[in-house]
Amino acid sequence: MRRRAAWLSCVLGLVVSSAGGGEMTLHRVFGPEVPTGPYKHPACMTELASGDLYLVYYGGEGEYANDTAVFGSRRKKGAAEWSAPKALARDPFHSLGNGVIWQDPTGRVWLFYVVRFGATWSSSRIQVKVSNDDANTWSDASLLALEEGMMVRNRPIVLSDGDYLLPVYKETGNDPEFVGPDSTSLFLRYHPATNRWAESGRIRSARGNIQPAVVALDDKALIAYCRRGGGYDPKEKGYLVRSESHDGGRTWSEGRDSPFPNPNAAVDFLKLRSGNLLLVYNDSMSARSPLTVALSPDHDRTWPAKRNVVEGPGDFAYPTAFQARDSSIHVVFTSDRRTVINHAVFDETWVVTARKNP
Fold first, then answer.
1. How many angstroms separate the CA atoms of 135 and 81, rounded?
2. Backbone angles phi, psi at 4, to 5 degrees
3. Maximum Cα interatomic distance, the chain, rounded to a whole number of Å
4. For domain 31-152, which CATH number applies: 1.10.630.10, 3.40.109.10, 2.120.10.10, 3.40.50.2000?
5. Model confidence, pTM
6. Neighbours of 81 (CB within 10 A)
7. For the segment 146-179, what is each residue's pLDDT rounded down to a tens digit?
8. Given the DSSP bridges, would you call strands 291-296 and 157-158 parallel, antiparallel or unpaired?
9. How far is Cα 39 from Cα 304, in angstroms, rounded to an integer?
10. Where along the chain do its domains lie?
């Protein structure tokens, strides 16, 4: 019954309350009915300086369709409805993917996305557009990463020295159902003073890793959790890959299996204003359900509280998370075979009042 209730909450946009305090809301944002094609995946959301929420995703007939584009939609501050999605990036010759939206401390809005030049993602490169008017108009596209197989999935962070660190990855294998063992997570570092991007360290691991999500604990120590490499078949041992940097993200330790299971699915990782760390992941080695959030109060040493955002039959995947100015935590994810975008909002209390880990 509890699993069924969680699923109904996701579909109907109900409020899920906790007897100990805190609450979560789950809303369906868009589905196949929106005329950008049935495929809507992955989704990324941010809060703009105006207080508006802005959502991007890539849409079309399917993951490997030839006509996919990156779409954007806005929910104005205080409003309940999202605007009709419109194409922000489209290529007449190539398919696009993996839009990432982010506003930097100066107010500039960045749109990172992938251009696929061949049959699989291993042929991709990263492009970027910027907006200086709160995501109302956009620049022309610029190539950010020329190396074959380069992709983006998670939002940048701002480091203590003012540089921006963008998590990216190089996917290998030329196989739509298998991530090559030499796939690596890495980072691109932007220097605002020089307006230049440069590579900043790679994470290598025994079976490959992609889609890093990163937090900075201080001016030197950073932690990244990455999606594992390999195939999509159920495994008895499939874990998120963890790596550390002790020089501000310039070099990284070898990626090693963490205690967190991973069914070859994306993850997000945040440092909250409280200082606690938030991990959003699929708590399973074989399925993209449940979608779970966990909190660490001690810089990733222990994770005493976790709670499922949604669970039960289905696929709830590719979470993107951020903390809004009012300290609420937002998680956007896709479901229903990558055709429905969902938006969860909760606070730390909602997570902490869940049952504790054993």
1. 18
2. -60, -40
3. 57
4. 2.120.10.10
5. 0.93
6. 9
7. 999 999 999 999 999 999 999 999 999 888 889 9
8. unpaired
9. 36
10. 31-152
